Amino acid sequence: MLDLTGKPIWLNTEKNIFTVLGCHAFGYLLLDYSANYSVGCLSSCDSLDTLNKYGSCNGIGCCQTAISKETNRFVISFDYGYTNSEVYSFSPCGYAMVVEKAEFQFNTSYITTDELNSYTATRPVVIDWAIENSQNTTCDIALKTKSSYACISSNSICKNRVNGHGYLCNCSDGYEGNPYLHEGCQDIDECEYQNACPKPGKCHNFDGGYRCSCPFGWRSNHNNLRDCDLNVELVIGTAAGIVALLFLGIVIYVLRERRNLSKVKEKYFQQYGGWILLEKIKLNQGFGFTIFTKQQVEQATNNFDSSNIIGHGGHGTVYRGTLRDETVAIKKCKIVDESKKKEFGKEMLILSQINHKNIVKILGCCLEVEVPILVYEIIPNGTLYHYIHYRRQGSQISLETRLRIAHESAEALAYLHTSASPPIFHGDVKSANILLDQNYTAKVSDFGASILVPTDEAQFVTFVQGTCGYLDPEYMQSCQLTDKSDVYSFGIVLLELLTSKPVIDFDAPKEERGLSSRFLSAMKENKMQELLDDEIKHEDDIELIMVVAELAKECLSMKGEERPKMKEVAEELLRVSKLKQHPWGQEYNPEETETLLSERSQHDIEIEHTSNYFNIDKEAEESIAIGR
After folding, report:
1. Residue-range definition of the domain harbouring residue 147
2. Same domain for 79 and 18?
């Protein structure tokens, strides 16, 4: 008995045959246990002379019958009403088997000896197999459910099983290998085979095939396209006209390329709303905003030479360039959301109208390219991130400077939230996006993640974006960017200014890797002073620092509705900055100071952070852009 039930393999009904050997032997093949289908075969012979006379499998000593029904289990048995007692002297045994047709040749010795009982007398059986996920699996059905589709090689083809359900995978013509593996089917290089293209023909291999070409002055032989014959007429005719044709071809090519380039530039310019933007600029609504050509920005950056790179952002690379005798920052963006392309020109117009001393000014853009190029004023002293974490040895940042930078940054964000029309949510507030000019004045930059608030105040949902460690946990769950998302991220910037510690510390224990988690634990346990930067741990300033710490704690509330508005944050930082500038008892009296401090303590909000919220593997990069 052979039982392959539950396996995707079957007995091949074309290449196998049911065979019975012996004299007076009636064997039969039962193809299912219910005996609904069976085949049988009777082999007989009366004497040894009769057996030797015929010697072929024609019913005398050997009979064969076809297996017409596909199966994966069968039973072979004999009808014991037929015995070999009368012929036992020369035919002691009877055999019944399923065997491959091509591998079986009848021999009378099988009848007269026990040769078939020996270990070496095995005969093969052909088994079919196929990929089968259900009884009706075909190539078309399997391809629709790609997760289980087996022909995964890019150069494979699917073939339905001829008899029954399921399918098999083969490499396409011109490829060989394993079609069930990625890149399993590799191109066959026919040019490596001898005489693929007899000389002087040249063989050209390509994916899936090859072709033969004849060298100049030769032509293909019509009797055999792989052979080449000398073509004298062609050599003479070609030599006579080649110079004129070459010149004409160059002229046509140059004109065509110029026209194609012009069409491509116009296409990009139109799809990004360039005509609308240009019309507004002509009406003096662009506030000094300029649309630059592709040639201008390429010349300004020496064709985007790597030596001019001054920074890499989450949305592109920033180059130093010179436009109209002015040094500027030119940002080559990586990608623009398809849904925002039509509104790009309008958004540029809105951003160009932003005029705040603590926001990097956008001067113009180039729309003649696949992804727009933005031009900003250049800010010379780098980012707040580098100023905090990579300052020169021996240099210090006073508390007064830290408070000023925090206040200026908060003022910029408050302007975007309340004074811009429509309001703008930055979406990626972090110390790396706060630049410092020659006077170390804070300038908020990089609006690559920003969105404009819809005028109908509808819910605006975006893909999660931002930088790990600064992301609003409420935004991570809802994908809804709000003004309070910027407030949370700014709270992390405040922690950086107070502690000078990285936002994510991979060397710390898992529960302490996130700066926000460490800060909240320290506040809860009254150990905030242990977390502060040594440079600002002065007894005279500790009360002011704790006011800022309480403000940061409010910004980091898990619920956005419990966080203060950015305008309130800016006002509080301004008051603290003034307290730092004016010693006790001069412009501010103790009662006013006490009121300020108690006012903050009354808003103390208990914030629960899961200890593993920022537990990121050490192998991850320190600053990971989400949704970029």
Report:
1. 139-187
2. yes
Residue 475: which CATH number?
1.10.510.10
Q: Which two tokens stand for residue 498?
A: 């107070």
CA separation for the pair 492, 550 (Å, rounded): 13
Helix (H) or strand (E) holding 200: none
Q: Is the dihedral of CA 590, 591, 592, 596 positive or negative?
A: positive
pLDDT range class, residue 444, cuts 50, 70, 90: very high
Which run of H or of E encompasses 290?
A: strand 290-292
Looking at the fold, whether 472 and 499 belong to one and the same domain comes out as yes
pLDDT at site 449: 45
Taking a C-beta distance cutoff of 8 angstroms, is the pair 428, 465 a contact? yes
Q: Are residues 457 and 520 in the same domain?
A: yes
Percent of the chain with pLDDT over 90: 27
Residue 423 lies in a domain: yes
- Residue of 128, 227, 428, 446 with catalytic role: 428
Residue 500 Ramachandran class (φ > 0 left, ψ -120 to 50 alpha, else beta) = left
Pair 502, 370 in one domain: no
Backbone dihedral region for residue 53 (phi beyond 0: left; psi -120 to 50: alpha; all else: beta): alpha
Looking at residue 564, the DSSP 8-state letter turns out to be P
Q: What is the CATH number of the domain that holds 342?
A: 3.30.200.20
Distance of CA 385 to the CA centre of its chain: 29
Q: How do 25-30 and 73-78 pair as beta strands?
A: antiparallel
Beta-strand relationship, 290-292 and 362-366: parallel
In a domain, 266, yes or no: no
Number of domains making up the chain: 5
Q: Which helix (H) or strand (E) holds 466?
A: strand 466-467
The single-letter code of the amino acid at 108 is T
Based on the fold, state whether residues 150 and 121 are members of the same structural domain.
Answer: no
User: Does the reported pTM lie above 0.85?
Assistant: no
Question: Do residues 356 and 442 share a domain?
Answer: no
Q: Are 493 and 434 in contact (CB under 8 A)?
A: yes
Active site residue 428: yes
**CA-to-CA distance for 550 and 556, rounded, in angstroms?**
10
- Cα–Cα distance measured from residue 160 to residue 169, given in angstroms and rounded to the nearest whole number: 9
Instruction: Identify the band that residue 94 occupies on the pLDDT scale cut at 50, 70 and 90.
Output: confident
**407 and 547 housed in the same domain:** yes
* pLDDT tens string 106-123: 888 888 887 776 655 678
Please indicate, yes or no, if residue 171 is contained in any of the structural domains: yes
> Beta strands 316-323 and 218-221: pairing type?
unpaired
Pairing of strands 25-30, 38-43: antiparallel
Verify that 311 and 399 share a domain, yes or no. no
pLDDT of 179 higher than 80: yes
Question: CA 516, CA 533: separation in Å to the nearest integer?
Answer: 15
573: amino acid identity, one letter: L
**502 prior amide bond cis, ω within 30:** no
